[in-house]
Amino acid sequence: MKRRALLSLTASAPLIATGCAAPSSTTSTSAAPAATLQGTGDLGVVIERAKGALTLINTSRREAVGRVTGLGDLSHASVVFSRDERFAYVFGRDGGLTQVDLLTQHITGRVMQAGNSIGGAISADGSLVVAQNYTPGGVKVFDAATLELLADLPAHTASGERSRVVGLADLPQRRFIYSLFDANAICIADCSNPRKPQVTTIPNIGRQPYDALVSPNGRHYIAGLFGEDGLAMVDLWDNPPRVRRILAGYGRGQQPLPVYKMPHLRGWAIAGGHAYLPAIGRHEVLVVDTATWAEVGRIPVAGQPVFVMARPDGRQVWVNFSVPDYNRVQVIDTPSQRVVQTLEPGKAVLHMEFTPRGESVWISCRDDNRVQVYDTHTLQSQARLDVDAPSGIFFTARAQRMGF
Amino acid sequence: MKRRALLSLTASAPLIATGCAAPSSTTSTSAAPAATLQGTGDLGVVIERAKGALTLINTSRREAVGRVTGLGDLSHASVVFSRDERFAYVFGRDGGLTQVDLLTQHITGRVMQAGNSIGGAISADGSLVVAQNYTPGGVKVFDAATLELLADLPAHTASGERSRVVGLADLPQRRFIYSLFDANAICIADCSNPRKPQVTTIPNIGRQPYDALVSPNGRHYIAGLFGEDGLAMVDLWDNPPRVRRILAGYGRGQQPLPVYKMPHLRGWAIAGGHAYLPAIGRHEVLVVDTATWAEVGRIPVAGQPVFVMARPDGRQVWVNFSVPDYNRVQVIDTPSQRVVQTLEPGKAVLHMEFTPRGESVWISCRDDNRVQVYDTHTLQSQARLDVDAPSGIFFTARAQRMGF
């Protein structure tokens, strides 16, 4: 219904309708309100992974405020936001890139841009949205307003085959950094001329980079290596950027345990001169000195950590776990480096997101079909929302941070 | 071509038009446009100090998008934003507190709450706006939605007279911290019950605190002392909070020079484990180790620094100066701790504000009636805006940061 109206609208002005207008007369599935004037700094989305839908939320009211359906396969989805915090760009596992207007609560643009995709990024000036793809392996650059394809950058191995792309993040000056899982390389694409990006490749960075992060200040890009012990780090303030191997033996310990789920590097917490990392296959969080990048401690936790996330002030680090311990969340006090609380928010905790100033954290409990909101100071429940199989939670404040 | 098509398309759906193109029927000066749907993450205000007005700006388009008049004496004004980034709260020198709707571009609330005021803060949950006052000395707590006065907290000296209040900042859990210029004290008001705040006073913190800041992570509150050498610091993670004197002889050197303008402590940059501080009455920026709070270096600059501000990634620190050097701005590269560029944006540079991800900086040049926008990477001009006697520049992203 909604989709049909959109499609007919965009058919007559394909370059323009996306990013701007949505049909004035329609609403999304479950009685979304008519679009009203409102600020967008306290909005966000929760991925409904089974239904291919978004629940739209307001973090001031701590309520669901709408729902948008028709986003395809969201079994491993991620989201970035437009610079004005009005539009969400949703990268679906099936290669769908969908632009959603949080005000009208409509899909305002959608392209199937790959066969298998795992995320994307947006430039600081808000003009470019970039997707990283597994199949076919490479990166695609889109006009953020229209979703017009501006550049297609296939990624190749030395033998000329396609490589899967992981760990995409934005850098200043319309540049993007990413890693090639099958080519053991890190690439930086300068998209200042977005129809003719210039790609710089750093080869031999280590075997099989599987995910990566940029530190909150945008200086360090760190890729996890699946094919060997350790991590690859690039100091982006070096000119030219060079790679350095850090944390050999990262997290594995003497007797490696079976790994149920690879940790998400995006979950890494950097707070107060320390990085807090999920150990791989062990019930530990690693503490690393960010000046030397050497391990300086380990904190025992309740399971194999997946996301290890700092509250924005760095005073706490919150940890969730893989099967079979994924009903728990633990809170680490960073000054004492001890677990100070174990919470049981619900079944199958998949993701957490802090409000921008850190007073609350939202936690998705997939198998309870619920999002649980906590006060991070009292550790008491502030709200519960019914959401079908929630996974990723993303707030618009991400638009104003580097490296997402 | 593209724009024309857009306008005809959106003409039938006026509520939807903005966010993409300039509104068809509008804009700027005094006649506020019909409010249109738009995101609020890229909005901001520039204080017109002589006219008692605000120029409303958009940092994506780098343009003025409207103007609001009637705010009284804005000769020393500051601004905080509502949690949804829709409303600006403007604290005027004359004690006026004005709530401005950035979407409708109208004043939506205004109270004269004191005779002489120098700023305010807003709680992380967005519910409370607090003003700090010189005359009569004290703090007032308002409902952020209605501007209803919830609590009046007079500040007193030991002998029972009123003390001027400075250095107000928000803390977690609806608490606010501030300093008493005439009582040599720092106070923390717990407004979790906003009609009956509980005030904790830390006495004997040093003579005449004149301004203060909270570190970006919310941990350290640092007050400058007018009546003695040095600074007073409170580690807010201590329980109970205690005060400690740091940087004795702060910035004065062997032969103190005449001070033309007290530096603004809110301008302090904290980046990469160092704080960059304006020396008092000297042509230097001080470098301080934030682990030990000891001075570790001095950087010669072109005049007496007023604002010393870090780009959000900490790679650069920008400095402006008091009379007679206030036509200049210098850029310090933090890894090398050297001045790498001297700019001359215009006459009487009063303030600077970085975009949230740091790609641009906006600089007010009061005596040229101009705001100058620079690309922080190329150091080239990106835009110029005509604004009458501009002073403070404030972007909505402040809503999502601690300690403002």
UniProtKB/TrEMBL annotation, chains A, B:
The keyword Secreted does not apply. Transmembrane segments: none annotated. It comes from the Bacteria. Keywords: Signal. InterPro entries: Cyt_cd1_C_sf, Haem_d1_sf, Host-pathogen_enzymatic-act. Pfam families: Cytochrom_D1 (PF02239). The keyword Transport does not apply. Residues 1-21 form the signal peptide. This is Cytochrome d1 heme region. It comes from Acidovorax ebreus (strain TPSY) (Diaphorobacter sp. (strain TPSY)).
